[in-house]
Each structure stands twice: as structure tokens, then as C-alpha cells.
Design goal:
This protein is of the alpha+beta class and 94 residues long. It has a single domain, classed as Hypothetical Cytosolic Protein, Chain: A. 33% of the residues lie in helices and 23% in strands. The structure holds zinc ion (ZN). The site of zinc ion has 7 residues, from loops.
Amino acid sequence: MTTTLKNKTPQRKCIGCNESKPKKELIRIVRTPEGEMLLDSTGRANGRGAYICNNIDCLQKAIKTNGLNRAFKMNVDTDVLLKLSEEMAELGKR
Ligand SMILES: [Zn+2]
């Protein structure tokens, strides 16, 4: 990806609503080299990542539109989607 924006805050696109937002407003979903999918609240986990709003609606949208499958170039298991939804709900409570 090439960007010539001189904005200090890197922007990433949410895989749910497809809006570009400052990276810090988004949550990174990462697929680790071991094949585990998790919400990366530190933004430092190794692996292929995708960004999503800190919003369960966007996660649901990403699931419905196969945004996760596209982002990770694989079919993400329903079990995993459920786990991510639960983790997202937990984050929302904090
Ligand atoms: Zn979003």
C-alpha cells in the first residue's frame, strides 16, 4: 500500500464498515503464525492483521460480508468468529 499522506496518524480501513480511521481507534485482528486468530489489543502481535472499529456492529458486518475471509484470504471458522465476537464484547465492557 502506498500512501503519500503526511498525516501523523496512520489510517487503516475497517473491514466492517470500510471507513478509514486513525489506527488507534481501531482494533487489530491478527492471525498468528500458529494459525490462531485473536484481537490484538496491544497492536504488536506477530502475524497477518486486519483492522476493525472497536464496535461489535462492525465485526458483525465483517462477518456478514465475508470481510474477514477476504482480509485473511481464508475461510474463517464460525467458532473463531464467535470467539472474536465474545472478545470484542468483553473489550466494549472495559
Ligand atoms: Zn467499522
